[in-house]
Amino acid sequence: MSNENPKVNKEPELLADLLERNAQLYPNETALIELNPIHDDAKNLAWKEYELVESGHSAHYRSELTWLEFDAQANRVANMLHGIGVKPGDKVAVLLMNCIDWLPIYFGILKSGALAVPMNFRYTSEEIAYCSELAEVSVLFFAYEFLERVESVREQAEMKGIGRYLYVGINPPAWTTGFEGLAAEFPADRPDTAAEIRPGDDGAIYFSSGTTGMPKAILHSQEALFSAAITEWKHHNQTHEDVFLLIPPLYHTGAKMHWFGSLVAGGRTVLLKGTDPGWVLHTAAAEHASIVWLLVPWARDILDYIETRTGVLRGLELSAWRLMHIGAQPVPPSLINRWKKIFPHHDYDTNYGLSESIGPGCVHLGIENLHKVGAIGKAGYGWETRIVDENGMDVATGQVGELIVKGPGVMRRYYRNPEATSESLRDGWLYTGDMARQDEDGFIYLVDRKKDVIISGGENIYPVQIEDFLHGFGPVKDVAVIGVPDERLGEIAVAIVELKPGQETTEEDLRGYLEGLPRYKRPRRILFDTVPRNATGKIEKPKLRERYGVSELVAKQTT
Fold first, then answer.
1. Residue 14 pLDDT more than 90?
2. Residues 434-479: tens digit of each pLDDT
3. How far apart are CA 159 and CA 161, in angstroms?
4. Percent residues over pLDDT 90 in the chain
5. What is the spatial distance between Cα 383 and Cα 224, in angstroms, rounded to a whole number?
């Protein structure tokens, strides 16, 4: 990557360099827009005055930042952190819903030399306390949505290391400091520490999704964060003219690292608060969005919305939309086939990654490989992949093994967890815990999580394969397959099926459809219920196991 503008002092090496370069190149151009259809939320946000806008879909609140304002606010945050005693290497947590404050705060932390510690906005009070203690957090940014949760645990031992609570919003509680008022006291000049930060320095701590237990803290370097931006830019060719519609949560590596490609290009980004399919379509039209990154449930909701409402796309100018891409979970090919029937001009890509590999990008399909829908793709830009057996030896083409990856975004370690680190990092390779196979053309297909594989009567059953198959049955909206103990077979497969609104079917209908699978793969029990997913779209199978209880399922199983 090269710079032609003489005002840019050096080749970027850090994320903050990219922000500062954009502030120099495009000072008065819009960098971030927040659209907030949830009116009560906007009343409690603080950076800028929100404008009430009437649109063709509904009234919403809108706020904007230029690249110069974005960089200036990040500088104020960094100088403020120094002013309250934060030193390079300290840990500063961010517990916020998506909002226009989020990214300036994040970049301000990075510029200060502290480590940014984004937190899941779905965390319970206990998880907030646990993660704060694990990451050794000394400062916490949070907003009114989390007031009750934070206040209920702030006196606990796990929170004693937090010396300052910075409240993002109006009317800060007495035990907090109002962020906006304090930040305004500090200059918008580049902090002195910014020049001292090196790519090899620690940059951020992210948390694992916690779908199999309490989250683990994942330590990443500044270099890894920057590599995610370059990888994303190389994969999706973002330009300065692109408009990125950002919906997923910013605390997660997925959404933010995909946005990093727009950061490289200096493109405009729209933060949409809410996942209502009508809002997504109307926002994409009104803002001339060209890139939209979705989770599987949202893509399904959009398709259902269009297919059940005659003429809903009439009058919507969506010609700018060039790329729809999905990540965070296996993507049913049937979903993409439906999408392409409605949006045949869209490029499509899927991305695979983990928080341990700084989010998406270590594997990606590529927009030129639509004929391989169902695969997650090949090694991404700057990455290597292998599929290995239990002894770390490469398996034959077509055989199932564990996917391992190596590249510039691999985590340094699980923070304060050497045992888990040694299990996952071996000779520079990250063992993902995902079972996969590779076809004769080198494309990788996810089979399932290693921990979710069901061993029934000596046969390996991969839930994702059954889930993908059931997604092809018209009335099915979502499906999860879990294993439960069985005295004779060891385990049996149980399918939890969620139907589309207004759709009906019977267990007998589903069993007839399942005859398309080998007998040993057919679920022994089918239950109709909602399928819980976390904020990044992953099925929360532990919740399903807890919801029903193993004893209940075993008692009801059919043979």
1. yes
2. 889 999 999 999 886 777 778 776 677 878 788 888 988 989 999 9
3. 5
4. 64
5. 12
**Mean pLDDT, the chain, whole residue set:** 88
Instruction: Return the pLDDT at 321.
Output: 97
Which residue, 247, 311, 238, is CA-closest to 36?
247
Strands 347-354 and 425-426: unpaired
Distance CA 381, CA 351 (A): 12
> Shortest CA distance to 225 belongs to which of 140, 109, 70?
109
Question: What is the band of 43 on the pLDDT scale with cuts at 50, 70, 90?
Answer: very low
- Chain segment 353-375, per-residue pLDDT in tens: 889 999 778 999 999 999 999 89
Write the DSSP string, 155-194. Answer: TSGGGTT--EEEEESSS--TTSEEHHHHHTTS--SPPGGG
Residue 540 CB contacts under 8 Å (≥ 6 apart), including other chains:
211, 532, 533, 534
How sure is the predictor about 274, in pLDDT bands with cuts at 50, 70 and 90?
confident
CB neighbour list of residue 440: distance below 8 Å, 6 or more residues apart: 397, 398
Q: Which residue has 């929170």 as its token pair?
A: 159
Q: What is the mean pLDDT of residues 512-518?
A: 87
Q: What share of the chain is helix, strand, coil (3-state, %, to 5)?
A: 35, 30, 40
DSSP 17-75: HHHHHHHHHSTTSEEEEEEE--HHHHTT--SSPPEEEE-SS-EEEEEEEEHHHHHHHHH
Options 1.10.3470.10, 3.30.2320.30, 3.30.300.30, 3.10.105.10; which CATH number does 453-556 get? 3.30.300.30
What is the DSSP code string of 371-422? GGBTB-BEE-TT-EEEEE-TTSPBPPTT--EEEEEESTT--SEETT-HHHHH
Among 334, 431, 351, 330, which residue's Cα sits nearest to residue 389? 431
DSSP E strand stretches across 190-333 = 202-207, 217-221, 243-246, 268-272, 291-294, 323-327
Q: For the chain, what are the domain ranges?
A: 65-222, 453-556
Element (H, E) at 444: strand 444-449
**How high is the pLDDT of residue 53?**
60
Phi and psi angles of residue 420, each rounded to the nearest 5 degrees, phi first: -65, -35
- pTM for the whole thing? 0.83
Specify the fold of 65-222: Rossmann fold (3.40.50)
